[in-house]
Specification:
244 residues; alpha/beta; Rossmann fold; 7-stranded parallel β-sheet; 16% strand
């Protein structure tokens, strides 16, 4: 029987790449999303076309009741939850003096509370089999200062800290928790940057290129596999040397 993986925010970008890769690894993947039915269904169709198994589930991970319902429905249908990739989040750069309470609340709700809500519900299911894997999507912004990202950096710093604490709490139950901290990745957001900005950012990356989403997914795949069964509580940076 294949493992059941939930990837939040999986209708596009890094989340979508993770969903595709975990399905390629033989897992049944639940593509969580909160907005575009079309994008989520397209991701599911691509997984199925490649011979994998997947289903879409719409839920706002910043809403604890929707999260509870999602995990209950998935556990009822598939029997368990083996892997959680906490990926859904928001990046909204604002300088400190321009920061609004709306931006602050949205970032905290999605990037921190959403991760905790999903991890809590996943662990309640993983306890039964005394095994499971959680991968939290962090960012190199947790380790280096970028102007305008005080809130985003704070949330990703929190992700690194919660990853360590969860790992220590849950190791005795056979549950591993790690984080992946990418630098610049070729997503829609980066692709839409002006060419001069792209060149500026590229100069800061010693390897001279941005990461492909598949490279982030490869690391997530490794952390979800038995090849990393003695790794827990780590935040692994994937940034082409940006933070050096």
């Amino acid at each position: 029987m294949s493992k059941i993986a939930i990837v939040t925010g999986a209708s596009k970008g890094i989340g979508r790449a993770c969903a595709l890769r975990l399905a390629k690894d033989g897992m049944t993947v639940i593509v969580n999303y909160s907005r575009s039915d079309e994008a989520a269904n397209k991701a599911v169709e691509e997984i199925k076309a490649a011979g994998g198994s997947a289903a879409a589930y719409k839920a706002d991970v910043s809403d604890p009741e929707q999260v509870k319902t999602m995990f209950k429905d998935i556990a009822d249908q598939y029997g368990t939850v083996d892997v959680l990739v906490n990926n859904a989040g928001i990046v909204k750069d604002e300088y400190l003096l321009m920061l609004t309470s709306e931006t602050l609340d949205k970032c905290l709700d999605l990037n921190i509370k959403g991760y905790l809500y999903c991890a809590q519900q996943a662990v309640l299911k993983m306890f039964r089999q005394k095994s499971g894997v959680i991968v939290n999507m962090s960012s190199v912004s947790a380790k280096m200062a970028l102007a305008g990202q005080s809130v985003y950096s704070a949330t990703k710093g929190a992700v690194n800290s919660m990853t360590q604490t969860m790992a220590k709490e849950l190791a005795r139950y056979g549950i591993r928790v790690n984080a992946v901290a990418p630098g610049f990745v070729m997503t829609e957001m980066v692709d839409q940057l002006p060419e001069d900005k792209k060149k500026e950012y590229l100069k800061a990356v010693p390897m001279g290129r941005f990461a492909d989403v598949s490279e982030v997914a490869d690391l997530v795949s490794f952390l979800c596999s038995d090849e990393s069964k003695y790794i827990t509580g780590q935040s692994i940076v994937l940034d082409g040397g940006l933070s050096l």
